[in-house]
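quick q for whoever's on today - can somebody do inverse folding on this one?? i tried earlier but teh output was garbage lol. tokens:
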């Protein structure tokens, strides 16, 4: 190996979240949200590999004064709740500014003119039904959401033979459809929720508990 590359992020940041909610009818709510993405300082090093004439591990090039920015998110949601409060249906659209990542990575060692990440639209649809006559209260939940492709996309021509290396590295992905399901149980002072998020590439299961004093 001629060169090895390391990318290290060790930082913290403070962000801003802002939301508004409008009840425009007895059973309908409209909401909006803005979530600011954090910025973290990073260190990028190119070091000599075992096949390099320089001693292995020698720093050949480095970037230590740059920050990587994560996407800001703008969202708009609409929710319906039945008059008795047992059924809730919600839809949310989120605009995720993924291109911020590529733009912030531009440096002497990373040429972002070769590749970018497209901004994406997340679409969420969810349903919750609460069994109001049960003791303790029990709720079941389900939904689907669209996860837009946010891989680096090569900005070269249409012919892969023009630049086969970058075509191989920066391959555009596909949008993913996630299916979600969950259940919640609420006692007088204690609540427990179990949820799952399933897709073609990953499965996530979450368990949470809340105790009220």
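ok took a stab at it. sequence:
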């Amino acid at each position: 190996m001629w060169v090895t590359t390391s990318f290290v992020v060790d930082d913290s940041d403070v962000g801003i979240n802002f939301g508004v909610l409008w009840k425009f009818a007895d059973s309908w709510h409209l909401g909006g949200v803005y979530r600011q993405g954090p910025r973290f300082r990073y260190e990028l090093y190119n070091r000599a590999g075992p096949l390099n004439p320089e001693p292995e591990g020698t720093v050949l090039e480095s970037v230590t004064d740059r920050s990587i920015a994560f996407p800001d998110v703008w969202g708009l949601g609409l929710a319906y709740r039945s008059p008795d409060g047992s059924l809730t249906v919600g839809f949310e659209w989120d605009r995720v500014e993924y291109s911020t990542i590529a733009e912030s990575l531009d440096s002497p060692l990373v040429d972002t003119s070769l590749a970018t990440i497209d901004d994406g639209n997340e679409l969420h649809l969810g349903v919750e039904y609460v069994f109001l006559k049960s003791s303790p209260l029990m709720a079941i939940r389900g939904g689907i959401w669209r996860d837009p492709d946010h891989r680096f996309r090569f900005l070269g021509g249409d012919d892969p033979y023009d630049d086969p290396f970058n075509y191989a590295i920066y391959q555009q992905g596909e949008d993913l459809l996630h299916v979600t399901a969950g259940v919640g149980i609420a006692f007088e002072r204690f609540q427990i929720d179990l949820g799952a998020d399933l897709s073609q590439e990953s499965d996530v299961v979450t368990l949470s508990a809340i105790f009220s004093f």
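fwiw The mean pLDDT is 92. also The chain has two helices and 14 strands. so keep that in mind when u check it
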